[in-house]
Amino acid sequence: EHVQFTEAHRPRLMSHGIKFIYIPMVHQSRFRQQTEKCLEKIADDPTVAVSVKSEIIYETSVELVNELLSEPELIKQSGRLEKVSRAVTTLVLNDPTSFSHLFTASHHDFYTATHMVNVATWMVPLAYAMGHHDTDELNQICQAGILHDIGKMQIPAEILNKVGKLSDDEWQQIRRHPENGCEYLKQFG
Fold first, then answer.
1. Is the pTM of this model over 0.90?
2. Residue 166 carries which DSSP code?
3. Which of 85, 123, 171, 172 is a good FRET partner for 34, with 20 to 30 A between their CA atoms?
4. Which of 147, 148, 127, 126 is nearest to 136 (CA)?
5. How far apart are CA 9 and CA 123, in angstroms?
6. Burial class (CB in 10 A: 0-12, 13-18, 19+), 71
7. pLDDT digits (tens, 9 = 90+) for 19-38
8. Would you tell me how many other CB atoms lie within 10 Å of the CB of residue 172?
9. CB-based contact 121:92 (threshold 8 Å)
């Protein structure tokens, strides 16, 4: 039986120790977009532990980047990317120690999408520590981190995932990914 979740359900579920709810695959995209809408509010909420905020923001970022890599035209929906970037920036501005929580959330998983989010979520606290405190600038730094490897979309998966030594030609393709990404992103700017 499917039940429409409302805020009235939250305290009841929590009082019974329920930590997870099932969301059918057909509704997951909608759920992620709802989560993205609330990210900045979550990042700014003093009642939510920094570790919890970091996990939510990090996981949401990874899901968005996975979508961007599989459907690059979603970059046109830059509002989603901006929401995620603002959440990371808000988290760092509210608690400069949040880097350790974002780092913990990364699980040291360096596949392309996760790596892109790792770079973004590590760049913002680093920039902040270096004295960059302007919110707009930190948002742009975060977005640059998220998109820095977008050019890898044009590299065949068999090269990206190759076990063993790459040939000279394969290395050349890998080395071209920054230029490929720049050319690709020009169409949106």
1. no
2. P
3. 123
4. 127
5. 37
6. exposed
7. 888 888 888 878 888 888 88
8. 10
9. no
